[in-house]
Design goal:
This protein has 65 residues and is mainly beta. Helices cover 6% and strands 25% of the residues.
Length: 65
């Protein structure tokens, strides 16, 4: 029996699928390495996929204005 395959997740348009970046601060740590900050995409909050569009409740119920 064939099972339908789910559609692939949509890539976040804000980060193009690269949701977390490391930014160097320029400060050196005692071991000589650089201090870095990890920053997540504010649009998708880190997974790299776009959230599905939500439909207003009035449209789901079939109510027209």
């Amino acid at each position: 029996m064939n099972h339908p395959t789910p559609p692939p997740p949509r890539i976040c348009p804000a980060c193009d699928g690269f949701p977390v970046v490391a930014i160097t601060t320029g400060t050196r740590l005692p071991d000589g390495s650089r201090a870095t900050l990890r920053v997540a995409c504010p649009a998708c909050s880190g997974p790299g996929t776009a959230r599905p569009a939500t439909v207003p409740a009035s449209e789901r119920a079939g109510v027209s204005c």
